[in-house]
Specification:
Helices cover 46% and strands 26% of the residues. The protein contains 10 helices and 9 strands. Strands 1, 2, 3, 4, 5, 6, 7, 8 and 9 form a 9-stranded mixed sheet that branches. Helix 2 packs across helix 10.
Length: 244
């Protein structure tokens, strides 16, 4: 199976070379990205890329972190944007930006949960890193195969939190809407929270930063063999450097 895939890749590279020689650049570029991030990250990168390569068709594949790494290894996708801390280190991988998960909870729910102690509890959590105190909050959790969901579970385990889960979903925008309405607290990357929360919604929430243990690199991984892939990677890294 690997041999057949290798032959197929060689044929595809030859076609790309002939197209480039003839000045008729075309082909299908398959880009994988974890859920919740495509709209935020890819839109400006794709617009930049299309100016340089208008003849290239793009296929966007959204999947879990683990599945994207597997698809990149097998050649199902050409490029993957994800957390590559676990995976095949022989792949081409470069950092794009650093993501930070924070804990968001409605001000009203926080008050109802801790009562007169709310200011003291907030200070102990935020400044004293007594994260175990968050155990009293009902939670809205991202899926365990999502990057943020995975790190939230690692964080809770390390902090000794036995969670009371009210809802679990892959869609973090949905969970943050429920968070604003007071259904529970939510672990969410700052880049996603900034994208989905309006000024009015943010006013209803308390944000608790969680320190370095809730930070990780989002990277771009890619396969060799096509100049168009290298061009997309360059566009992505340049655009992320401008944003972050």
């Amino acid at each position: 199976l690997k041999y057949a895939r290798s032959i197929q890749e060689q044929v595809q590279r030859m076609r790309h070379t002939f197209d480039a020689i003839n000045g008729e650049e075309k082909g299908l570029l398959k880009i994988g990205i974890t859920s919740n991030r495509g709209r935020i990250i890819l839109s400006p990168v794709i617009l930049d890329f299309r100016k340089i390569h208008p003849g290239i068709e793009l296929k966007i594949v959204e999947d879990t972190n683990e599945n994207l790494i597997q698809k990149l290894e097998k050649g199902v996708i050409d490029i993957g944007i994800s957390d590559f801390s676990v995976g095949d280190t022989s792949m081409n991988v470069a950092p794009l930006y650093r993501e930070r998960v924070a804990f968001y909870i409605g001000k009203k729910l926080f008050c109802e949960t801790y009562g007169e102690r709310q200011e003291e509890v907030f200070r102990r959590i935020q400044e004293g890193r007594e994260h175990k105190l968050l155990e009293a909050c009902p939670l809205l959790l991202g899926h365990e195969q999502d990057i943020a969901g995975k790190y939230a579970r690692k964080f809770m385990k390390k902090s000794g939190i036995q969670p009371l889960i009210r809802a679990e979903a892959k869609n973090l925008a949905l969970l943050m809407d429920l968070c604003v309405e007071g259904l529970g607290g939510c672990f969410c990357p700052d880049i996603i929270a900034a994208h989905v929360l309006t000024v009015e919604k943010r006013k209803k929430l308390i944000e608790i930063t969680l320190g370095e243990e809730a930070e990780y690199e989002i990277c771009i991984g890619w396969r060799d063999g096509w100049q168009v892939i290298d061009s997309f990677v360059t566009s992505a890294r340049r655009r992320m450097n401008l944003i972050f």
